[in-house]
Each structure stands twice: as C-alpha cells, then as structure tokens.
Amino acid sequence: MIWSITSKEEMENYGISSVFKYYREALGKDNVKLAVVDENDKLDFLQKEDVALLRTASESLIKTIRAKGVKTTAEDFSKYELVKDKEKVFRFLCSCGIRAPKQYHLSSLQEGKTYFVKPRYGSDSFGISEKSICRTPKEVMEQMKYLKEEFGMESIVEEYIAGSDCTVTCINNQKYILLCSISIDCDETNGIQTRDCKVGFKECCSAMNDDRLMNVAGTIFNYLGLKSHARIDFRKGIDGRYYPIDINLLPGLGPLDHLSKSLLLCKNMSYIDALKAVIASAS
C-alpha cells in the first residue's frame, strides 16, 4: 500500500486533498490511501511492505516514518530545516562554491541598484509579485512592510537577476539521478513566477536542454545528500548564468505542477509514470 501522509495543519493550509484525488485516479483507489494525522501519531497503520509518500515537513512525523523502516520519500529532517530558510540556503550554496543571488542587509542598500524582496520562508511563490522588484531602498522598505503586515512574513533582500525563471526536477531512481529542466515563461509579470501565474494559468513551460543547468541542479542534490526527489528553481540571467533561488523537497505532485510538467515535456512521461517515478525514489 502507498500511504500519502500529511499533518492536519498542512491539510488545512495547503489543500492536499484536492491533489490526492489525482493520486487515486492515476495509481488506483485500492493502491493508495491518504493519512491525515496529528503530528504525534504513531502511524501504526504502516506495514513493512508499504511505501510512505511524505507530504509534510513535520519533524515528529518524519522521524516516526523513518523509524518504521518502511520505504519512504522522507529525507532527514535536517534537510527540510535547511531548505525552508532561504538565508541558510544562500550560505549553504556559497559554502559549496555555487553562485546564488547576493543577499543584502538594509544598511548596505544603495540608490541606483535593483533589488528583489521575497519571504525568507515558504514556497509556491507566496508573497511574490511584480512589486518584489524594488528599484530604490524606499521601495525595498515598503515591500518588506507589506509582506509583514499582509502575510506576517519575514523578508530577505537579494540582488535582482534580470532574466527568466526555470526549474529542474531531480528524481533518484536508485541507479542515477533523473534530471529534467523546463523554462517558465512569465512575460506578463516581468519574467518572474508569481502565485497568480501558477494558479491562474498565466505561464507557459517548455523543455530545456542545457547540461550546465542540470549539472548545477545535480550538484546541489548531491551536496545536500538527498535520497529521493526534489525540485530546484533557478533564475537564468541575461548573462547566461543560472542562479539557484529555491530548493523544494516537497514539490507539488498534481498533474499541472512543475514536476509533472517537466517529466512530460522532457521525457514524454505521463502523469501516471511521473507519480510512479516519485514513488520509486522511496528508499
């Protein structure tokens, strides 16, 4: 049995149930079940032959799943703890010799430079809009205040990379890392992904074939010591360089999410095969 496991809190906040119906249709209703549990649940329903498809970053649930000795897509909790904090991710990437957008303290802001303000924590482009691009220190302060008041979010300030967005799906099939990269056309929003673009069908994705991009993504995957799968987002600058901007260890698994799109566009893999590839990455 394949168990899609999430906490009650994340079910309420992220609507996992709306995607779970696609799991059932793709994998068969008798082959996959949804478990919405408290964070301290003992998960006694798990059997040795089951696969735990993790859909939560809860420390206690991750530790319980891994202690059960079942096949799972869960990574060590420390990995989730690292990637949720974009300030820590920046320091990690720098320590690995991987160039990411430079981060700034408020005291170092200057007139004449363009900055990008985004939430320090979180994913799925929450809090990202065209106003994230700030051309003066005053605009930076205003956007940081907006994110705090509107979403209760702490912010970070990065250098703005003029260019476009792209993403790489990384799946460990236990023999090698499958890498699929797609460009994300967001012309309506100055080339940046926004929440509205993702859910409002205002983006257009296409397959990419750039070994440099996939090599960087594979290097990050290996440096993190990941065992299962991830999606790593990048900015492609007008200088042709790729700058990692986010590492997602719980990427969306719906048929219209970027993981599924990348496998379809790059490998002509159906949604069923995409889910099977993710499940096969369980170790």
UniProtKB/TrEMBL annotation:
Residues 67-280 form the ATP-grasp domain. PROSITE patterns: ATP_GRASP. This is ATP-grasp domain-containing protein. One of its GO terms (molecular function) is metal ion binding. It holds the Pfam family Dala_Dala_lig_C. InterPro entries: ATP-grasp, ATP_grasp_subdomain_1, Dala_Dala_lig_C. Keywords: ATP-binding, Ligase, Metal-binding, Nucleotide-binding. It comes from the Bacteria. Belongs to the D-alanine--D-alanine ligase family.
